[in-house]
Design brief:
Layout (H helix, E strand, L loop, with lengths): L2 H12 L8 H14 L1 H10 L21 E5 L2 E4 L4 E4 L14 H14 L8 H13 L5 E5 L2 H16 L3 E5 L35 E4 L4 H10 L6 E6 L4 H4 L1 E2 L4 H11 L3 E5 L11 H6 L5 E4 L11 E5 L1 H4 L20 H17 L1 H20 L8 E5 L2 E5 L13 H21 L2 E2 L5 E3 L6 H17 L4
Parallel strand pairs: 3-14, 5-6, 5-7, 7-9, 9-10
Antiparallel strand pairs: 1-2, 2-3, 4-11, 10-11, 12-13, 13-15
Helix pairs in contact: 2-14, 4-12, 5-12, 7-9, 13-15
Length: about 475
Amino acid sequence: MEYAEIMKRKDELLARAPRPIPKDKLETEHKLYAARCRKSIEIFEKAKGIIPGGVQHNLSQNKPFPLAMDRAKGYKIWDVDGNEYLDYLLCGAPIILGHGYEPLDEKIIDLIRHKGPATGLTSEYELLAAEAIIKNMPGVEMVRFLQSGTEADMAALRIARAYTGKLKIIKIGGSYHGWSDQMVYSVHIPQTYNLEAKGVPGECFAHTVDVSPNDFEGLEKAFKDHQDKGGVAGVMVEPIGGESGAHPVHPDWNKTIRRLCDQYEALMIFDEVVTGFRLDMGGAQKYYNIIPDLTVLGKIITHGYPSSGAVAGKKDIMKVCAGSIGEKVFVGGTLAANPISMAACYYALKYMEENKAVEKAAAYADKLTGALNDLFATRPDLGFFVYNFGAIMHYMTTAFFSVDVKAPDALVQIFARKEVADNYQIVTMAHGLCTLAGTRMYACMQHDDEALKKTLSIWEYVLSLIPGE
């Protein structure tokens, strides 16, 4: 689905009132879900006393309770009650070979058994992992490994400022670049500014410049307006759009950012935490043939193994991370580039390339996207639709991410639409379908026709619960 059609369909969906599942039917689904997941509820009730909110992970589906998972294999996961789920969350995108991919796991188990998990010193796997990334990504000549995508984003901003000698960072609204102080600004939904920045002093945003997605005029104005206020050091961008494409980019958007960065001597920073090695083995930069100055990588480079992040780019820029005290950009992390993470990176990328994992996952996503759109077309009164960027799929049922926050009732709209989408997700989870935030699905190379048929069956059931007009 092309950009123009996606935006048209979103606008049409926003023009409709959200379509809730009737209360009596929803209560039945809640009872079914609770009956199936008694142990998860028990764990949640205990956790609430010792863990804030009763759950650690932001990706968890927390309503009415978070599931406690037991194991995962291929494209399936099982909770502590033994219920089986089709997994389209895939740990938030890093799993593309499939859960428990044995050749990769055996390499890591062997490393731990014979060499130990970490020494605090360097290992050969750092070199092998860096070489594997450089081999695949056209904009990368040097790599500095860190412990998360958030840390890598922080380092990228610091590098951009040190290299250019400028202060301002342009952040595109609705994008997520980790949870560091200066980036918790207009996350998830454009123009929400510091709505989710409780505990962050306002001064932290002094050099963060917010620009709405696809606002070509606003983007150029931001460069011009800040020339004499410290200048723009860099533009941080999710190359397929904020929230992994929930806010899709206009076909000319990335090209325009590249042109303006060159014109104003700023760095273009691609946050490829999700798109790197999922959209293409060469990332969005290869997919779109637009080369950034810096690239941020995360979770997928270790395929779900922890301590996973990297900032990478051209040699002359990355060299600001080297040198003597007082001259270099300071980055750190005791467990950054530990042998487990580096071996996982090297072997994961090797097996992804050998198995054509990205191509297989994308082919499945194309097939599922088409099949779901055919199913949703049987209920034109709802306006539901799906679009995908390779193996990254977005399904639109209420479009709560796309509400215009300038509208007088914007927050009411967002919360009302999100509640309806959350309830759809409760039903899908109750029947064995695990997705992200009620809007997103990731495919891996092991998803197959059985998974597709079951996915369609569950969504057919959801549609049957929603009354016609």
